[in-house]
């Protein structure tokens, strides 16, 4: 590519990938700017540090090791945080984390502080909520700074299906992004196996739970030798295992329809067929089937 001769990747590395149509480049004095996909310099190469563009803005600085100024894709400086914040992070969901005097908060793209710097650690916003840490306890806030999940837990992690996995001590539960409890904090292990269906464990017992109805809890050891007949977990027979080196990785029925491994949990293997029906097998059953077939 011809423009490599004039504009090279930072510090001689391969040119970084494009974000919002622009990529970071460097001149022979190691000053950073941004080029478009035609190799044209769009943002002047005057910066010492620069982030990839995200949500139409990037964070740059003319001082080594700093990230203190917000620019748009035309190179216009939207906000200067010099002397205001120690660091500005990339924007996610319209807000950026900022650090001041070892405390964290959030600003909008105009540089306005919308959530004060009162937290010890913050994380990126995702679909209107973010995990925060204060005095070694975790919780979740919304974009107005309102507390959605109280900041009283030992760990809060964004999971899937807009849910959070919560830990208090050695026990886990699940909350949704509105702070509603989906699974009580009563289990030693929790894992999603399919959509709203979770498998949980406590006191050496495992259960299947539908988070839409926590009362619909089924003890795994009561499932029988092959499967259980529930609305979402159907019986399927005539298995033959085809991967002897890793039991349960692939399974087929006698009509050669694909059955995929969903999860391996303690003594059980959870499978899903082409109809998205779940099948529960004990690993002992799999060994038995392997020997017979």
Q: Summed up, what is this model?
A:
By secondary structure, the protein is mainly beta.
Model description:
By secondary structure, the chain is mainly beta. The chain has 1 helix and 28 strands. It has one helix spanning 283-292, and strands spanning 23-26, 32-35, 41-47, 49-50, 57-61, 69-72, 77-80, 87-92, 95-100, 103-107, 113-119, 121-122, 129-134, 137-142, 147-153, 155-158, 163-168, 171-176, 181-187, 189-194, 197-202, 205-210, 213-219, 239-241, 250-253, 258-265, 268-272, 278-282. Strand 6 (69-72) and strand 7 form a beta hairpin. The longest helix has 10 residues, at 283-292. The radius of gyration is 26 Å and the shape is elongated. Residues 1-5, 221-257 and 289-293 have low confidence and may be disordered.
- The number of helical elements comes to 1
Measured distance between first and last alpha carbons: 58 Å
Q: What structural class do helix, strand and pairing data support?
A: mainly beta
Shape category? elongated
Number of strands: 28
**Residue ranges: pLDDT <50 for 5 or more in a row?**
1-5, 221-257, 289-293
**H/E series, N to C?**
EEEEEEEEEEEEEEEEEEEEEEEEEEEEH
């Amino acid at each position: 590519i011809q423009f490599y001769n004039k504009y090279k990747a930072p510090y001689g590395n391969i040119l970084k990938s494009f974000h919002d149509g622009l990529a970071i480049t460097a001149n022979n004095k190691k000053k950073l700017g941004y080029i478009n996909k035609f190799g044209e310099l769009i943002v002047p190469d005057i910066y010492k540090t620069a982030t990839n563009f995200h949500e139409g803005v990037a964070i740059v600085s003319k001082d080594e090791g700093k990230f203190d100024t917000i620019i748009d894709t035309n190179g216009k400086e939207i906000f200067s945080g010099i002397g205001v914040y120690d660091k500005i992070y990339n924007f996610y969901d319209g807000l950026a984390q900022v650090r001041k005097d070892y405390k964290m908060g959030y600003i909008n793209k105009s540089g306005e502080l919308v959530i004060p710097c009162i937290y010890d650690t913050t994380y990126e916003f995702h679909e209107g909520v973010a995990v925060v840490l204060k005095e070694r306890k975790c919780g979740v806030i919304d974009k107005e700074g309102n507390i959605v999940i109280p900041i009283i837990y030992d760990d809060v992690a964004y999971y899937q299906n807009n849910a959070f996995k919560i830990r208090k001590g050695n026990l886990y539960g699940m909350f949704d992004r509105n702070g509603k409890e989906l699974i009580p904090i009563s289990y030693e292990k929790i894992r999603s196996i399919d959509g709203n269906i979770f498998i949980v464990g406590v006191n050496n017992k495992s259960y299947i739970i539908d988070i839409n109805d926590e009362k619909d809890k089924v003890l795994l050891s009561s499932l029988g030798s092959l499967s259980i007949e529930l609305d979402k977990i159907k019986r399927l027979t005539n298995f033959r295992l085809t991967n002897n080196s890793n039991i349960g990785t692939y399974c087929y029925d006698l009509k050669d329809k694909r059955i995929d491994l969903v999860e391996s949990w303690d003594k059980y293997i959870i499978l899903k067929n082409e109809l998205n029906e779940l099948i529960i097998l004990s690993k002992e059953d799999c060994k038995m089937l392997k020997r017979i077939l």
